[in-house]
Amino acid sequence: MAVQISLYTLLANTVSLEEAVKLAAGAGFDAVDIRMREDGIHIPPDISDEEAVRVRTMVEDAGLHVSGLTTYWEAGRVERDEAIEQLDAIERALGTASLLGAKFMRISSADYDRGYDYEVCRAAFRDQIVRVAEMGAAYGIVVTPEQHGGRYIASAGQCLDMLRGLEHPNLGVVFDPGNAVSEGFERPWVQVRMLGGWIRNVHVKNRMTAAGEPLAHERLPGGNVRVNEGVLDWDVIADELVAIGYDGYLTAEDFAEFDSLEEKFAWNADFLRALAAKFD
After folding, report:
1. How many distinct structural domains can be found in the chain?
2. Spatial distance between the Cα atoms of 83 and 75, rounded to a whole number of angstroms
């Protein structure tokens, strides 16, 4: 598949899913990555099969397709009952993702519990993610835990430590170097080379660092800025992705301020389209 551009619908959390799709189509995106969460933005976890089919039809009628389903279910909970609950929810969400025609489904990794040794947390994640990959295979969907602060896999190095040796065609990661600016930072071009074929979706955003406060070490301070204005050089990152043969989506997750959603989406679509041209 040629690299395509997608809009994560969280960026349109003030409007309906129908309006988000309309705006994405008008801006020139190829696809939408639909958010699923209990708050109902943009679809709830208990969505019916009939409604999922209706959503897919609505997206396709707009000239787009569903690139992915973004959920917040977690792999790696140490407590058995919690782990079972999360795994069951992941399997249900995969059924919805399949009905939507999604290529991938985003999940989260759990966060560390200081009451457990690191190796206990790591073992729980690895055991569960293998099961999740098998679930994904049953539905023909790639499951992608996201590189994200406050999780087991904030950095590329942590991703590799958690996943190395578990390679599976239905398992990848969402590469998000913008998240790593706040926790898990490694030089972005090094991150790409480390993760290589694990990268199955890319979140495109940027941040600018800021002065910190004493002892405030959980998350390094900074602010959201336009994708071309932060510490990340997306031209360099795209060149590295080209070098590893990446052929997935460039997904807009830009939290910078714009005067309107129309302006924001058009600006991001133009930026991503220029990056995607590097892959031709």
Report:
1. 1
2. 7
pLDDT in tens, 249-275: 999 999 999 999 999 999 999 999 999
pLDDT of residue 43: 98
pLDDT of residue 232: 98
Domain hosting 46: range is 4-279
Is the link from the previous residue into 42 a cis peptide, with omega within 30 of 0?
A: yes
Distance of CA 225 to the CA centre of its chain: 19
DSSP 29-90: -SEEEEEB-TT-SSB-TT--HHHHHHHHHHHHHTT-EEEEEEEEEEE--SSHHHHHHHHHHH
Residues of the chain with confidence (pLDDT) below 70: none
pLDDT value of residue 222 = 97
- β-pair partners for 107: 145
Tokens 């992608």, located at residue: 144
Per-residue pLDDT, 1: 74
Beta partners for residue 234, in sequence order: none
The distance between the two most distant Cα atoms of the chain, rounded to a whole number of Å, is: 53
We report the CATH number of the domain holding residue 223 as 3.20.20.150
Asked if 160 and 195 count as a contact pair (C-beta separation under 8 A), the reply is: yes
